[in-house]
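Encode chain A's predicted structure.
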Amino acid sequence: MRIHRTTHPRAFTTFGNALLRDDSISWCAVGLLTYLISLPDGAKASIRKLAEKRKEGRDRIGAALHELEEARYLRRLVRRDGKGQLRTEYEVFDTPYDPDAPAPEPPAPGAGPAPEPPAPRPAPVPENGGNPAFGGPGHAAPGPLPKGERTGEEEPPSRAVALLTSLGRTEPRLAMGAAEAAPLRPLVGEWWAAGATDAVIREALTSGLPARVHAPAALVADRLRRKKPAPRPAAAPREGVECDRCRRPVPPGEPCFQCHPAPAARASFRETAARRGAGLRELVRGRRS
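Encoded structure for chain A:
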């Protein structure tokens, strides 16, 4: 089994392997716990709302919550709100909590949760990074990269770059970065224009590789140029016109034989039908006599 992991720059949640491999709780309970931990602090959850988000019904959600409560991943607290009404709150833990530890005191009515301290702002980094090798003190800062090779979130990777950078997942010898794959986008576009699919391009680039590949981008560029399929022939223009009834092609200026048979054909058809009808009548008369 090969594991492909993606690095998420934001909106992600981390879990310890001890939680994900805890065989004392079911898969449903593990999935429910990971979802609850991914919610922001102070979010509201109930069995009804949780059951509406997935295929599991209320019974399975309730059983999973009971599992988490017994394994000390979840604690139910009954508290009285500012209006004097009792309500149940969930406290969720990514590791089993200490049952001897006292539960936290609820905030005062109307006070709300304590504000979190603001995250420290990172120190500003100069454009040249302060490194002489990349334009440090005494050197000019490097200019902007060409369009399509810029870093950050200015421009998402194109479909061609995504296709080329994914080759390394199935064939490590062709592993390359987005900066190496960006100049090869026009070559991939020529293959698509010729009617090739992603599977065809992938097969042409990964089959029959040498034992060692020292320059994956150069090898891919060479194969994209040498193995490029012939362009698709243009569709030949249809001669004549179509019948207004059956939409079959007919020669210009002539009627459709299927919908408008010629007079001679109609006469021949009537003669054949009359002759066969007379034969049938004679046969019936002979049997009656």
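Confidence is low (pLDDT under 50) at residues 111-155.
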